[in-house]
Amino acid sequence: MFSAPAIPALTSRPLISGTPRVEHSVTYEATFDAWYSLARAYWKAGLELLNVCRTGTPEQTQVLTPGIFLIRHSAELHIKSMILDAGAQRWTKPTKRELNVLNGHSLAALWDLLEKRLSMLGRVNEDHWWKRVRHIVGQLDELDRTSMDFRYPIDKAGGKLAAGNDITIDVQNFLDVLAEL
């Protein structure tokens, strides 16, 4: 005989309040440190999910898509943080075109803007590591150009997205390459 799982007792507790058992506070101010901190938090959460996939059961691998999204989103926030930081060092506000790039999700366009901002500061970096990061960012951008594929099962018009459902990833290789960053 089938028995349904027990339904937890309903309470009137608010979702966010009460006395925490462990003190956690989340405060993000409009500072560069806050942007970097949030980017690192997404990175760490993404790595945790990907590690579950690496060693997990088929049911646990369901977190692959959110893990990839978190890594990609972290990269986006890191690049945006560096762009804003570089702009502040020159005391220049973003142009209208730059604001469009900053408000978008294209990693390639953001990377181009970052390199432009850094060159304005005389900090053009063409060493091996920088080129490798540029290449990996490019691969993340190719995987999901609009930051939609790993967030939604369909696009805004109801069509199938390019990556999320049809991609095969060697999770260990993905983690190994991310470790280079």
Q: What is the helix/strand order?
A: HHHHHH
Per DSSP, the total helix count is 6
- Major sheet, described briefly? none
Cα distance, first to last residue?
53 Å
Q: What percentage of the residues does DSSP assign to strands (E)? A: under 5%
The tally of strands reads: 0
Mass-distribution shape: globular
Helix content: 40-55%
Q: From the alpha-carbon coordinates, what is the Rg to the nearest angstrom?
A: 20 Å
Q: Class by helix and strand content?
A: mainly alpha
Low-confidence stretches: none
Mean pLDDT: 83
Task: Produce a short descriptive summary.
Helices cover 54% and strands 0% of the residues. It is mainly alpha-helical.
Q: What is the topological layout?
A:
Blueprint: H1 32-55, H2 64-90, H3 96-103, H4 107-120, H5 128-143, H6 171-179
Description:
It contains six helices and no strands. The model has no long low-confidence stretch (mean pLDDT 83). 54% of the residues lie in helices and 0% in strands. The longest helix has 27 residues, at 64-90. The radius of gyration is 20 Å and the shape is globular. It has helices at residues 32-55, 64-90, 96-103, 107-120, 128-143, 171-179. The protein has 181 residues and is an all-alpha fold.
